[in-house]
Write a structure and sequence with these properties.
binds zinc ion; 7-stranded mixed sheet; 17 strands; 6-stranded parallel sheet; ADH_Zn_CS; globular; alpha/beta
């Protein structure tokens, strides 16, 4: 007897550095799961790390963790969702019962799984996820809803940082994450944000999204920042992952101020601070990893337009375009790229 198995197109990392578009079996929603027809999945620096075999990538892998789409199959036992619901996905799949989950830090789950990082993700026509990871997005366009994950990470950073009202903030990095962080800071108490980036087009975009001052990276930028704010900035944040930036942060932070280390530095990198300076200037150093139940916060910022993302979407590519999208990630500023969305319906 002849059976026809349904298939779908997906981008697959088959080995470090090897990316292919393949036909894979169409996944079925199991108990407690939903299947999503992907409308838009954002490309992120993490995808480039995964392609290089970092982050303990288990290959073969369908990457893509910034996913929005429409529920097209509801598994047994799922409540609260139906076919046709537009949703954004939180990619973090946590066990709920380990040490960290029980402390409310589910992104540190000892049995951590994440869609598009350890299990099949959104650079595919369809993806299956626990229903508990899906969030209905109402009338929000799904291209905008695809920002729920990166903005959820930014929201976690804001919850960790707890900006005080009328803070003067400094931000290094005006890539897609920096531009989300800029807007989140302004929505969370910062009275002004000064943005530093090497690329002038990005600084222009930062100004259009509310940056009060922008400076282009140069050998003189640190003394320029000291001249601008002789008492320092109440908040100094970075979305660059560059050690030469992090190294300077304590010297630019006002007494009593806070530093947010948001970018992903190489694991083996280190910087040296004066502990005396941290002590004597009452400085707070804040780290922020991934997202933690912050998708609703992100969706609220997006729905209320307190955070605008339309101008960050510079490219829409089909699944086959993931190669090109990762090339843009590898060369910041290339083709003016900010956020690239993979849209499986494009051919
Ligand atoms: Zn990401
Ligand atoms: Zn856990």
């Amino acid at each position: 007897m002849l059976t026809t198995t349904k298939t779908m197109r997906a981008a697959v990392i088959t080995a470090p550095g090897q990316l292919e578009t393949r036909e894979l079996p169409l996944p079925e929603a199991g108990p407690g799961q939903v299947r999503i027809k992907v409308v838009a999945t954002g490309v992120c620096g993490t995808d480039l790390h995964l392609l290089r075999g970092h982050f303990h990538a288990v290959l073969p892998l369908v990457p893509g963790h910034e996913i929005a789409g429409i529920i097209d199959q509801v598994g047994p036992g799922v409540r609260g969702f139906k076919e046709g619901d537009p949703v954004a996905l939180d990619p973090v799949v946590s066990c709920g019962s380990c040490h960290y989950c029980q402390k409310g830090l589910r992104q540190h789950c000892e049995h951590y799984q994440a869609l598009g990082v350890t299990t099949a993700g959104g650079f595919a026509e369809y993806v299956v996820a626990p229903a508990t990871n899906a969030y209905t997005v109402g009338p929000l366009p799904l291209e905008v809803a695809a920002f729920a994950e990166p903005l959820g990470c930014v929201a976690w950073g804001i919850l960790r940082l707890r900006p005080e009202p009328a803070s003067k903030a400094l931000l290094f990095g005006a890539g897609p994450i920096g531009l989300l962080l800029l807007q989140a800071l302004l929505a969370s108490g910062a009275s002004s944000v000064t943005v530093v980036d090497p690329i002038s087009e990005r600084l222009e975009l930062a100004r259009s999204l509310g940056a009060n001052r922008t400076l282009q990276t140069s050998p003189e930028v640190i003394p320029q920042l000291r001249d601008l704010e002789p008492y320092g900035f109440d908040i100094v944040s970075e979305a660059t992952g560059r050690t030469e930036v992090v190294q300077e942060m304590p010297n630019l932070t006002a007494r009593g101020g806070k530093m947010l280390i948001f970018g992903v530095s190489p694991e083996e990198a280190s910087v040296s601070f004066s502990p005396y300076q941290i002590y004597h200037h009452d400085l707070t150093v804040v780290g922020s990893f991934s997202l933690n139940a912050t998708v609703p916060m992100a969706l609220e910022w997006l729905s209320s337009k307190r955070v605008q993302v339309e101008s960050l979407i510079t490219h829409r590519l089909p699944i086959e375009g993931l190669h090109q999208a990762l090339d843009y990630k590898n060369h910041p500023g290339m083709a003016g790229a900010q956020k690239v969305l993979i849209k499986p319906d494009l051919l």
